[in-house]
Amino acid sequence: MTRYSAFSLLRQTLRGHRGWDRAWRDPEPKRHYDVIIIGGGGHGLASAYYLAKLHGVRNVAVVEKGYLGSGNTGRNTTIVRSNYLIEPNAHFYEHSLKLWEGLSEDLNYNVMFSQRGVLNLAHSDGQMDAAARRGNAMRLNGIDAELLDREQVRVMVPHLDFSEHARFPIFGGLYQPRGGTARHDAVAWGFARGASALGVDIIQNCEVKGIKRQGNRVLGVETSRGFIGAGKIGMAVAGNSSHVAAMAGLKLPIESHVLQAFVTEGLKPWIDTVVTYGVGHFYISQSDKGGLVLGGDIDGYNSYAQKGNLALIEHCMAAGMQILPSLSRTRILRHWGGVMDMSMDGSPIIAKTPIDNFYINGGWCYGGFKATPGSGWVFAHTIAHDKPHPINAEFTLERFAEGRAIDEKGGGPTPNVH
pTM here? Predict the structure, then answer.
């Protein structure tokens, strides 16, 4: 692996960045792979990386219709946490958080994981009781949690509205110190480089147009660059899950919605943790570049568009100013939208499908980014062994028909409300 000195980096900059080594290979697709992963976002790349590293499956291709990270991986607010109540989610997201804690070292690539903590605000005695219950459940599962009172929250985030006339008075909050944020594109690039170094082919600008079947078995994918055969196919395409699954004749219990996010102009250090509050469905943190990164609820209509509407922009800004009045003095620099695959119970689907050798990684709702390493880790195991790991054993597709919903109110960005 090439290492660059400070002088060589300066020289490359002055030369217009010519002569850099590729971070990952750009091969032509082979005629056949042992495994094809559809989707070149964080989940797909992580799945390919762990297939190669942990299971020795290296004849793998990741096919992406655009460029790597052009979907939800590059269109989110980068929050990482494991503050879940229900056990399947608690164990899964805690496993993912532990992978986050060693990810930069594992990939030898700085994903800029910052454990600045995640604070969920409470605005009533009832919400404080719910926060205490969730915190106790987390502690019983070995997950860090601290129940803060009003004055402890004031010390942590003094800019919040603690006035007597606040629309949502702050009673306290539940704090997870090990939560935080990471750099979304660095996560995609790190997994891509790691997977490529292990022999995985990463094929960009290769849109899947169809999935070829023989009886109940998948044979490969029809793409914009021709047919590619596969022994197994895994899909990790977020909001396009229903569309891609339909190519194989599979109908999924999910809906696709737009989720918008925003970033402000750069500011001096102002907020050093992640703050969310359920009543307004609002969340905010400050990036390393100084911009405030914030978001709210999904747009209420079904869509595959990576853009939102003015009504949600207005709602999100109002929700932010209700809890952080000084936000009114900042300028929004840009906003964007990601396409969420919303499952019917707020929990993911990481499983075999009824179609032989066809696997699904989807239904992430609001929480896909924080699951990236854990998702790839268990999905790789599921594909390699044709059965789930115990950590994802309950995230089946069949649970919806069997009435075994994992109805996690913490599935969204704010665990105090559904």
Answer: 0.93
